[in-house]
Specification:
It contains three helices and no strands. By secondary structure, it is mainly α. Helix 1 runs antiparallel to helix 2. It is rod-shaped and about 65 Å long.
Length: about 90
């Protein structure tokens, strides 16, 4: 999958989350705070799930690149990615 396709998929997901926010704002402004809260909680859950999947994907991509760099003898690049991976896992 090329970067343009990934970017478009990301935009579609963000549009859906933005729609949750916009709808919850309209609902809040109309005075239905309970419904607005439910919308926001649902949107938050979706956003957190997407974030978890994205973080897992980053870890897997970094792991695979490290394996390739080590197989190619590119140890300094592998070490740089290993440090990045360690830093990423601490967050």
């Amino acid at each position: 999958m090329n970067s343009k396709a990934i970017h478009l998929m990301s935009e579609e997901k963000n549009d859906g989350l933005d729609a949750f926010i916009a709808l919850s704002q309209r609902t809040r402004l109309s005075g239905d705070l309970d419904h607005a809260e439910k919308l926001l909680k649902g949107g938050l859950k979706m956003a957190e799930e997407e974030m978890t999947r994205a973080e897992f994907a980053v870890v897997r991509f970094l792991d695979e690149l490290i394996v390739i760099y080590e197989a190619q003898g590119r140890t300094s690049e592998a070490e740089r990615l290993r440090k990045r991976l360690d830093s990423f896992r601490k967050h």
